[in-house]
Amino acid sequence: MKVTTSQVRRYRVHAQQLDRAPRADRAPGEAAVLDLGVQDTGPDGALWALTLRGVPVTAGHWPHELALAWTMRGAPHAYRRGDLRDVERMLRPYSEADAAKRVMNAAGPLKAAGIPVVEAMAATARTMREVVTEPLAKGELSTRMTAQMPDAYLRWCPACNATHMYEMPFRLAALHAGLELEPGTSPPVVRRIPHWPAAQVGVLERADEAGAPDPVRTLLHLAGPLTAKQVGVYFDVPVRDILARWPADAVPVDVDGTESYLLEADTEALRSTTDAGTVRLLGPYDLFLSTGDRDVVVPDRSRHKALWQAIGRPGAVLAGAEIVGTWRPRARGGTLGLELDEWVPWDAATRRAVETEHARLATFRGVEPR
Fold first, then answer.
1. How far apart are CA 150 and CA 110, in angstroms?
2. In terms of DSSP H, where are the helices of 236-272?
3. pTM score of the predicted model
4. CA 350 distance to own-chain centroid
5. Residue 333: how many CB atoms within 10 A of its CB?
6. 252 Cβ contact list (under 8 Å, min separation 6)
7. Domain map of the chain by residue range?
8. Which strands form 368-369's sheet, in the order they lie side by side?
9. Which of 6, 173, 245, 369 is deepest in the core (most CB within 10 A)?
């Protein structure tokens, strides 16, 4: 099956529900992207991503049905609260190599000390659970954890002028400890997830996975077609571990000459989804922008540096299934302006739609558009 990058983008807009109109009676959990987790980075993070998918939420007002946790790549992600136990199981390392890759520079000292990384993550989770008996700011939690953990878990940090735990094991252990983040806190506050089973604290072994959520399938459905390497990069998991769990019903798709994969049940939608004329102001870390196949998302490579900046990246203006520019918020007093960079000349309809989305973003933030 051969498709174009335009067909892929149209499919993703629809699969990720970016073409869905808002509805006041829609429940907070009624967004397909929550199956995967919605990254919450910056003021227009997870809640704005849900707003773009027709969910009635506003900045700073987290419904109890949603929860926030450090998960993939150590970043905060939003989930349905009722899914958290399954999410924890889903995010357990597949192997020792996988665990080592996830904790990055912490793996070396642990290996030198003869401590398997999976065991280290489990020990960190158990200790963290014991330490967090009440909500704790990240700094205080770090101080208490540093006092509890052996030297192999610690490093000297020149930026802080102090010794503390390596960052990635610290973050990744939190959900395995049954801990969530308190939304809207900076520095982040960590607290216990209510009614978390003691038997699930610090257990990183993968038991029978039959019927458990499959993150690879979820990503291929929401953001396919993708290669195994791209899936591995998204989850920060070695390709070998991804291939060992590759869905049997993932079929090859030729995307402008690159062999990628999609679930067989989604191939008809990939062929037939049409351009809904959607205009959205995507947040900088929206799933649509985060799949790693940048040549598919934005075929013009000369635009990549401006969109995917390492620090302070802008949001993207989506028109139909094309990224046609970038945007940055400019808040002043009780108003919100936008700094726009039009990559191509916008027609009048696109300009009016961007103005509508500008007003939508201002309402989301509780201010007036400027």
1. 10
2. 239-244, 267-272
3. 0.95
4. 28
5. 8
6. 1, 259, 260, 261
7. 2-200, 279-369
8. 279-282, 315-319, 322-332, 335-342, 368-369
9. 173
Give the distance from CA 28 to its chain's centroid.
17
* Rounded distance between C-alpha atoms, residue 311 and residue 290, angstroms: 15
* pLDDT above 70 (res 211): no
What is the residue type of 87?
V
Q: From CA 184, how far away is CA 193, in angstroms rounded?
A: 16
Residue 243 has pLDDT above 90, yes or no: yes
The answer to whether 283 and 42 are in contact (CB under 8 A) is: yes
Q: Is the pLDDT of residue 207 over 80?
A: no
Cα distance from N-terminal residue to C-terminal residue, the chain = 47
Return the residue matching tokens 């889903």.
Answer: 90
Compute the half-sphere exposure of residue 27: CA atoms within 13 Å on the CB side of its CA.
9
Q: Are 316 and 326 in contact (CB under 8 A)?
A: yes
List 347's β-bridge partners, or say none. Answer: none
Q: How far is CA 214 from CA 89, 167, 332, in A?
A: 10, 26, 44
